Amino acid sequence: MSNFKDQLKIARAAVDQNLEKWLPIPDNLSARVVEAMRYATIGGGKAFRAFLILTTAKMFDLPEQNAINIATAMEMVHAYSLIHDDLPAMDNDTMRRGKPTTHIQFDEATAILAGDALLTNAFEVLADEATNKDGSIRAKLVKMLAHLAGKDGMVGGQMIDLIGEKQTLNLEQIEMLQDKKTGALLMFASTASAVAAKATEEQLNALKTYAKCIGLMFQITDDILDVVGDSATVGKTLGKDKTETKSTFVSVLGLDAARKKAEDLGVEAEQALSIFGDKANALREAARFILERNY
Ligand code: GRG
Known about the structure:
Elements: H1 2-22, H2 31-41, H3 48-59, H4 64-86, E1 95-96, E2 99-100, H5 102-105, H6 108-126, H7 135-149, H8 154-164, H9 171-181, H10 183-196, H11 201-228, H12 231-234, H13 240-243, H14 249-253, H15 255-272, H16 281-292
Antiparallel strand pairs: 1-2
Helix pairs in contact: 1-3, 1-4, 2-6, 3-4, 3-10, 4-6, 4-10, 7-10, 8-9, 10-11, 11-15, 11-16, 15-16
This protein binds geranylgeranyl diphosphate.
């Protein structure tokens, strides 16, 4: 497990270095929005999605610099989603990644703009030549991320999540919502490097199955942490699902059955990786990390 945590740190450092390049503070009046973008990205979070991109890149011999650009775009979109999710109009959270949320540290309007700019500039990074020499591959990646982050992916999932605060959702609806809200970006993170390296259909399908499983596992462990986690370790306010009477995997299944479901998905994720042999060991460790995570 420690090797895995080292890999997360390596991914974090590689993306941070690239973010420094893409987000220099300008010497003009727009500097404030860039400061907020940097606050919400650099050094923040586990970089789990970046790790997936860098790890799958190694599996398919994709040049590292290509993967770092993809991972940077990914973490920018992820950070935008967290900034907007924390806003008063959405989850109204004051703490994220162990520090004040962006709208608390800056102000609401700046946080909205920082999220908007991270989303927009992520596509600038992805469309950059350093992402891939082949323009058609860059276009493919841009289309993929737009699709998975937009109405049919994360934003669509967030909409269902907001509706779920006002009406009870059944297990099938929760799975669909989480497949979009949390799963869509993990789908991009698990498959983008393979797409960029022109992997076979069989390899892509295996990674898609893996991504589906870890997406749901990630959300189930998030729901479990909301009930049993330590807020200092997780870095955000916990216990919110219960006070807001949200439908979650834990509220519908109970803690034990939710844990069992995550374990079953872990087995399925493992099976999906069998075609890659030992090359997928880091992905196996990632799935185990999700099951055991406490932050
Ligand atoms: C506002 C468009 C819009 C979307 C928000 C992803 C999301 C949709 C909201 C986040 C809510 C949330 C806490 C979901 C649980 C799963 C999740 C995405 C957790 C945060 O990801 P981590 O644990 O965070 O990888 P770090 O900080 O490590 O990057």
